[in-house]
Write a structure and sequence with these properties.
Elements lengths: L12 H7 L17 E7 L14 H7 L7 E3 L5 E3 L2 E8 L2 E6 L13 H10 L8 H4 L4 E6 L2 E5 L19 H6 L27 E7 L3 E6 L11 E8 L3 H10 L4 E3 L6 H6 L3 E16 L20 H9 L3 H8 L5 E2 L23 H10 L7 E7 L6 H13 L4 E7 L1 H8 L9 E6 L6 H9 L17 H12 L3 H17 L4 E13 L2 E2 L14 E2 L1
Helix pairs in contact: 8-10, 13-14, 13-15, 14-15
């Protein structure tokens, strides 16, 4: 049975999710409000690039979705909606046909059509692209006519549309004109190509000024095809790395919104006039990972072998970590400890599998001794210091806890641009031990299993930084992707999670809280995936 989204009924969890929103007609022209005002906001780090194919990172992708768009979109409550495609249907087991929105123009006035979609598919497959997760889903793109495109998959993929919000479409002619047909590589201090600092999307806002690490200014697109209730005509983004400075900027009125706000500052905002914290559960799991692929670690005093290839060592690290202490002392009770790589909001989450191994220093020491490291060893830990809620403090706590079992951690905490430039595939996964966070862009377990837990083969495991590899988990990722029966699919998801947990492929820590600070003079929408979009902002 083929899925004809928006035209026939479907069966299973994904059918209900996909059908919602597809009966919508073409969106009305943008709503203009009587009084338009500027808006200012801050984040703890800068957007790494305005190239929508340059970096697979939530904040960067969310920022880009203000001026670039995908074939599909999501509402503030994550309901799937038409984007640059008005409808889509599964015409063959491995073919999804997208009907494109007509009358859409890029910011420079160029007309959007099928050629731009096909070009964008090709571009995410270029060397500099960090969108390999999306590229691995699409075998080919075929032009049916100017406003119809077939996306061909290697095998049946019943949830392909769920994954395409962050696959943003670029203007073929503009890219060719400016020599940016290759995706920008944001590795290290590389400035990339023209698309790194300039943007030409179809979205509701346009980039009019870009000063890396200083500010980025966006203005409303008067020709946007969509509907918005936002009255923001100019928005200025400023990266503010220091927590105290960011919170002070909000309280003083220098910015209208700031995030993240350290959980320990919630009371400070509650007591200040004109501002308040905006909190909620985030579907992001924070976890630790190890290099399990190399025969010798890059950064350790252990030579000639890799201690992380031994499951006993990985388990020792797990059981040496007091997650409740991290929750109470660092996260102020606002985190949710986890044993799974996915959050409760993610389809496929099974609470029965979410019981953590007990914190037990003696057991951890014994496991290290059994593995041949009775005195422990030294290892460098990579950690961002401006990406996740209290990220560096979490890494410091982990290092202190591992010291109790004889492991000396050399903590390398860096700004996220340097951190991601070091540890991602573009730099050959240059890490031995690391902290990372992940929100499945599809809100489905398959995304995490394929991206984080599968072997690095055939487009899978792109963000499996440590190279954990169990061939059965990789096989299960393929089976989950095509299985349409909800019960059978859940069983496959559970099997993958059980194997990964038993082998301690990673160490899940917790789901962090959404933690924003907002002026009373604005209203904003807080998506559970922590993406912030200006079209949901109203300045009072």
């Amino acid at each position: 049975m083929f899925l004809r989204i928006g035209f026939t009924s479907g069966r299973g969890f994904f059918a209900a999710t996909l059908i919602a929103g597809f009966l919508a007609a073409m969106a009305l022209p943008g709503v203009k409000t009587a009084e338009a005002k500027p808006f200012k906001w801050a984040f703890q780090g800068d957007v790494q690039t305005v190239d929508p194919h340059g970096l697979f990172e939530t904040f960067t992708l969310g920022f880009q979705l203000n001026f670039y768009e995908g074939l599909v979109s999501r509402s503030a409550d994550l309901e799937l909606q038409p984007g640059l495609a008005t409808s889509w249907e599964n015409v063959e087991p491995t073919v999804w046909r997208f009907t494109l929105r007509q009358g859409v123009t890029f910011h420079n006035g160029s007309t959007f059509n099928a050629d731009d979609v096909i070009f964008s598919v090709q571009r995410i497959n270029t060397e500099g692209s960090d969108m390999k997760v999306i590229a691995g889903l699409i075998k080919d793109a075929v032009k049916v006519d100017d406003y119809t495109v077939d996306l061909v998959t290697e095998q049946p993929d019943p949830i392909l549309p769920l994954q395409l919000e962050i696959f943003m479409i670029m203007d073929k002619e503009w890219s060719e004109e400016h020599g940016t047909t290759q995706a920008t590589n944001v590795k290290g201090d590389d400035q990339g190509n023209y698309a790194n600092l300039h943007a030409n999307g179809t979205g509701p806002f346009m980039v009019v000024e870009r000063q890396p690490d200083v500010r980025t200014v966006l203005k409303a697109n008067p020709n946007w095809w969509g509907e918005t209730k936002s009255n923001v005509t100019e928005a200025t983004f400023t990266p503010i790395s220091q927590d105290a400075t960011r919170v002070a900027a909000l309280i003083s009125g220098d910015v209208d919104m700031a995030y993240p706000v350290p959980v320990q500052d919630w009371k400070r905002l509650e007591g200040a006039a004109g501002v308040s914290p905006l909190t909620g559960p985030e579907a992001r799991t924070i976890f630790l990972g190890f290099d399990q692929a190399r025969d010798e670690l890059l950064y350790s005093n252990v030579k000639g072998k890799n201690p992380f290839k031994d499951q006993r060592v990985r388990q020792a690290f797990y059981q040496a970590i007091d997650i409740e202490a991290i929750k109470s002392k660092i996260m102020r009770g606002a985190s949710t400890p986890s044993n799974l790589m996915i959050a409760p909001q993610i389809n496929g989450f099974n609470p029965a599998l979410n019981k953590r191994l007990p914190y037990d220093v003696d057991t951890a020491k014994g496991l290290l001794s059994e593995a041949g490291y009775p005195e422990g060893f030294e290892v460098t830990m990579d950690c961002p210091n401006d990406r996740y809620v209290n990220d560096e403090r979490i890494c410091q706590a982990v290092a202190s806890m591992l010291a109790r079992i004889g492991v000396k951690v050399d903590l390398l905490a860096q700004t996220k641009s340097k951190y991601f430039g070091k540890v991602l595939a573009q730099n050959d996964y240059d890490t031995s031990f690391f902290l990372l966070g992940w929100t499945p862009s599809t809100f489905d377990a398959h995304n995490a299993i394929s991206s984080l837990m599968s072997c690095r083969v055939d487009g899978k495991g792109a963000f499996n930084l440590g190279g954990y590899c169990n061939e059965r988990v990789t096989e299960l990722a393929d089976l989950i992707q095509v299985e349409t029966d909800p019960e059978k699919r859940q069983a496959l998801i559970d099997e993958a999670n059980k194997i990964h947990s038993e082998e301690v492929g990673h160490i899940p820590l917790h789901q962090q809280p959404l933690s924003w600070g907002v002026s009373d003079g604005v209203t904003v929408a807080q998506r559970p995936d922590n993406m912030f979009h200006l079209r949901h902002v109203t300045v009072k």
